[in-house]
Amino acid sequence: MKKSSLSSKKPQMQSEPKLPFAVQHQRAPGLESKLNPKPRYAAPRYRAANKLEGKIALITGGDSGIGRSVAVLYAREGADIAINFLPQEKSDARETQRVIEALGRRCVLLPGDLTNPKLPAKLISATMKEFGQLDILVSNAAHQAHKESVAELTEKELYQTYETNVFACIRLVQAALPHLQPGAAIIVTSSETGLLGSKGLQDYASTKGALNALVKTLSMELVEKGIRINAVAPGPIWTPLNPSDRGRTAKEVSRFGADTPMKRPGQPEEVAPAYVFLASDADSSYITGIVLPVMGGTTVGG
Ligand code: NAD
Ligand code: MG
Question: What's the whole-model pTM score?
Answer without folding.
Answer: 0.98
